[in-house]
Amino acid sequence: MSIGTNWAGNLQYRAAGIARPRNRDELHDALATPGPLRPLGSRHSFNAIADTAGTLIDLSAMPADVQQTAPDAVRVPGGIRYGDLGAELQRRGLALANLASLPHISVAGAVSTGTHGSGDAIGSLATAVRSLTFAGPDGERTLRRGDADFDGAVVSLGALGVIVELELDVEPAYDVAQTVHEGPAWDAVLGEFDRVTALGTSVSLFSRWTDRDRADQLWVKNRVGGVALDGELLARLGTSPAVVQRHPILGVAAEACTPQLGEPGPWHERLPHFQLAFTPSAGEELQSEYLVPRRDAVRAIEAIRALADRIAPLLLVNEIRTVAADDLWLSSSYGEGAVGLHFTWRRDQPAVEALLPVIEAVLPDTARPHWGKLATLEPAEIRRRYARWADFAALARRMDPGGRFRNAYLERLGL
């Protein structure tokens, strides 16, 4: 039986079967079957992190109940998509601090891989987690913020079990307005990089690297009532405000994108780049991302800039954005704030995988690849870049002593 492909179509799952439990009883029945087992999110990974030779566990058919557990917390099912969760929270007058560019991804899948949005003062999506419940063949286990293993268990790569539910931090709902500014000069951006990324609540730079002197676009998302746009800085960057809706990939129609042009709207309809009802990004594409400590960001961007002629023919768009520091062991921003260099590639995997080692060689050796995207770094080198890797490996052995949730991806990393 064919399980199908990931959303981009570059990976054919090799699993022998897939379970789609509709309730906790059916989930535990599925987990009691012979392994190996792997949790499957929204299939928005570009490598084999979610694959297995055994059974995939898909939580998308589980009840989508959202329960408010405190004035500033909600309990949500692991399989719910952020777009659906955002609409429900808004209906209740609540909000999350941040969202990724795509509302189509599942909460458990995004948290497990350290997926993030953008913002100097905002952590990855995993930093909103205050508790999470893992299900495995031997039952369920809940870890809470402050527990000894919690910081190691949030970004867990699916190695600790199926995340059946999570408790998330929330706050009162708020509005956001986003504006797009075209053609910022790279020399000016890099000369005042910290001020540029502080222009709004969430800031993204987009470039196809067809021009080494100017980026394509600067997107600024600001909470209504927050800091006003710095017009003098925008003038020094040499930008001009967009007067029509823009897609991150110049030349692509923008109807899939969330409203721009400074029109205020609910947080969940502005923080993502794309609307839930549309195919995100380009559809048939590949993605890579490397997150570098903020202290290395300008050097990393200059290294990419120097490779522009080699990158541009394969690139759809490169997005640069920031993430605040956290204490989660396998987070790409563990210990210090990070800057993400995200590449959306044309779907030519052999050519992309031939180019990635060139990019990895010029980036600072502090760059951490996103767990769910394409990279070619050696496993030993990836482990070296995570100070708590040995602690995580020990946690995985304690929580899954039989290796039921291990797969080829994790074994290659040394779990």
Write the layout of secondary structure elements.
Elements: E1 17-19, H1 24-31, E2 37-40, E3 55-58, E4 67-70, E5 73-77, H2 82-91, E6 94-95, H3 107-112, E7 129-136, E8 139-144, H4 150-153, E9 162-169, E10 171-172, E11 175-182, H5 186-191, H6 193-197, E12 202-207, E13 217-223, H7 231-237, E14 240-241, E15 265-266, E16 286-293, H8 297-306, H9 308-311, E17 315-323, E18 338-345, H10 349-362, E19 368-369, H11 379-384, H12 389-399, H13 408-413
Parallel strand pairs: 1-3, 2-3
Antiparallel strand pairs: 4-5, 5-9, 6-10, 7-8, 7-9, 11-13, 11-14, 11-15, 12-13, 12-17, 16-18, 16-19, 17-18
The name of the CATH topology of the largest domain is Alpha-Beta Plaits
Helix content bin: 10-25%
User: In the CATH hierarchy, what is the architecture of the largest domain at level 2?
Assistant: 2-Layer Sandwich
Please summarize the sheet with the most strands.
9 strands, antiparallel
Indicate the low-confidence ranges by residue numbers: none
What oligomeric state do the depicted chains represent? single chain
How many domains would you count in the coordinates? 3
Helix and strand composition category: alpha+beta
Radius of gyration: 20 Å
Distance between the terminal alpha carbons, to the nearest Å?
A: 28 Å
Number of helices: 13
Shape: globular
Question: On the 0-100 scale, what is the average pLDDT?
Answer: 95
CATH top level of the largest domain is Alpha Beta
**How many DSSP-defined strands?**
19
Task: Bin the strand percentage.
Answer: 15-25%
